[in-house]
Amino acid sequence: MALNQFPHERTKLKTTPDYAHFFIQEVRRYYPFFPFVAAKVKADFTWNDYLFEEGTLVLLDIYGTNHDPKMWENPDEFYPERFAKWQGNLFSFIPQGGGEYETTHRCPGEQLTIVMKLSLEYLLNKMDYEGTIYNKG
Fold this sequence. Notes:
The protein is α+β, with helices and mostly antiparallel strands. The chain is built from five helices and six strands.
């Protein structure tokens, strides 16, 4: 979808070393795989003066966090270069949940997103196609 919506990115992907990594990270931020994830609170805790009680169903707004203007400059702009010098953490960039996938609510399948690099390589260099962008309205 990003290659179709932002065709000017193709040139950068073909000519700029490491740009594929930035592009893939931005795809994950801009188009998260899930809009939110759900979990149940394991034990009572307080965060930002709010008590989360054991057993409460909570939702993590992945799309909202990845598009939050307090965390991201121009969050509604597709801008892969933002990841060139990105200094965020595992709770500010949450394409598949927050934290470490071994211990918290981050998707353990996240490491499989490396497949995106192979797919991107194929789409850019081994396949001719004409994309259609559907009107969002």
